[in-house]
Amino acid sequence: MPEKSSPSPLRVALLGCGVVGTEVARGILQNPIDLAARVGAPVELAGIAVRSVDAVRVTDDGFVIPSELLTTDAEALVDRADVVVEVMGGIEPARTLIGRALEAGAAVVTANKALLAERGPELFEAADQAGVDLLFEAAVAGAIPIVRPIRESLAGDHVRRVLGIVNGTTNFVLDKMTTEGVELDQAVKEAQALGYAEADPTADVDGFDAAAKAAILASLAFHTRVALKDVAREGIRGVTAADVAWAKRTGHVIKLLAVAEVIGPVDDGDISVRVHPALVPDDHPLAAVRGAFNAVFVEADGAGPLMFYGQGAGGRPTASAVLGDVVSAARRRLTGGKGVRESKGQAFPVLPAEAAITRFQVRLAIADRPGVLAQVAGVLAEHGVSIDTVRQTSSHTEDQSGIANLVITTHAAREASLRATVDAVARLEPVRQIISVLRVEGS
Ligand code: NDP
Ligand code: HSE
């Protein structure tokens, strides 16, 4: 009887050996027996493409990546791989290398949300044409399994809404402001000192990173293509310590949220995709997400509310998600066929920012005298914006100069109506200042 031959190893090409790549390399090199058992064939790290082969690559706990695996010839490495793992980041050369891999029939795993949000459609098309996998669990919320649950576990349901805290740096900053009462600049400095925020914190603080993830989440949840340019984006730069303190007084915390929702019928509606700071009620599960953690709250017709929570960044947590994709891609490479495809059957129009519907909390300074509240309420009524609650702090307690703080929370209104209302309120004689306008989500 001839001996059954053992399957040939599956070759993995790793593009990048930085924060995430070093941990992916360690995961493959340290666990050959587990990986082979899960895949059904040995998994071999064929090489690692970097810019500099001279730098020593070592994990935080001292695992040294063998220098003979490093190469600057990424193209040659891609050409001899069964699975290409892209963790170099940026648009080029990542896009070209992924395209090259897909064309050659290799499966691709990437953590690159910026690339997917900008060039995702063409890459998914190329993967479809080639009949191979393009997997990206790590691109949204790091270690948290959210891509596969939305794409596969909820494939038979209708997702209505996704609310996500998908940027750990801004959650850390807002949490510091909430717990310690500090201003944004100081909290950002602390985030930088702890290594959460970059020296240039723009991508996080101004919401670009969260917007890329929002585009990916919306595309998955609504089986459509949402590009980065479709996402209305507002970062946290305008949030003050006073806003955070007022949020507390009204039973909320401020979070930077990625929101993707269907407005109208689930099979024939419009979608709204946006990133902005929002007041979240204290009793909402997202309010409990502290520090640099991430969470994604999904509302689906059948499943109801679901919450996914965990570490959204960091080498080891992110590599965990990458390695899960490597096992899936390698296994399918071995057994043939393809996983659940990117579903893009729907063509929901994406609403412009002004058409989004949400609740608002408006904080204004007014002259503290009879009739002012009625005047302000009248302007809201004229614009069809319905008031939910009003809270006034009188000049006697708040400010001896005869100025009072008025905090109005509205029922759901279109953003355009609210903006017109706020402009009209600002023109009233007794109104001294519109201090802040914040959206309220999750209630
Ligand atoms: P790093 O900057 O730490 O690492 C990037 C790696 O890619 C480096 O090894 C670098 O080489 C290599 N590289 C960059 N450009 C080239 C190039 N042109 N040719 C060859 N090699 C290149 O990035 P991270 O590990 O932090 O992030 C990687 C990806 O993972 C990004 O897309 C990021 O958005 C995503 N991600 C990161 C998370 C995190 O917590 N860090 C979380 C979730 C996703 P060299 O070292 O020689 O310069
Ligand atoms: N800068 C991102 C964050 C890293 O703070 O969440 C993960 O994408």
Task: For this entry, give a set of tags.
443 residues; alpha/beta; Rossmann fold; Dihydrodipicolinate Reductase, domain 2; Alpha-Beta Plaits; eleven-stranded mixed beta sheet; six-stranded parallel beta sheet; binds L-homoserine
Describe this structure in words.
It is a single chain. The chain has 443 residues and is an alpha/beta fold. The chain folds into three domains: 153 residues, 3-Layer(aba) Sandwich (Rossmann fold); 165 residues, Dihydrodipicolinate Reductase, domain 2, CATH 3.30.360; 85 residues, Alpha-Beta Plaits (2-Layer Sandwich), CATH 3.30.70.260. It is 36% helix and 25% strand. The protein has 15 helices and 17 strands. Strands 7, 8, 9, 10, 11, 12, 13, 14, 15, 16 and 17 form an eleven-stranded mixed β-sheet that branches. The chain has a six-stranded parallel β-sheet with strand order 3-2-1-4-5-6, with helices on both faces. β11 and β12 form a beta hairpin. α5 runs parallel beside α10 and α13 runs antiparallel to α15. The longest helix has 21 residues. The chain is elongated. 46% of the residues are buried. The model has no long low-confidence stretch (mean pLDDT 93). The structure holds NADPH dihydro-nicotinamide-adenine-dinucleotide phosphate and L-homoserine. NADPH dihydro-nicotinamide-adenine-dinucleotide phosphate binds next to α1.
Percent of residues in helices: 25-40%
Q: What general form does the structure show?
A: elongated
Bound molecules: NADPH dihydro-nicotinamide-adenine-dinucleotide phosphate, L-homoserine
- The CATH topology of the largest domain comes to Dihydrodipicolinate Reductase, domain 2
- The average pLDDT score comes to 93
CATH superfamily of the largest domain: Dihydrodipicolinate Reductase, domain 2
Query: What would CATH call the class of the largest domain?
Result: Alpha Beta
Question: What is the oligomer described by this structure?
Answer: single chain
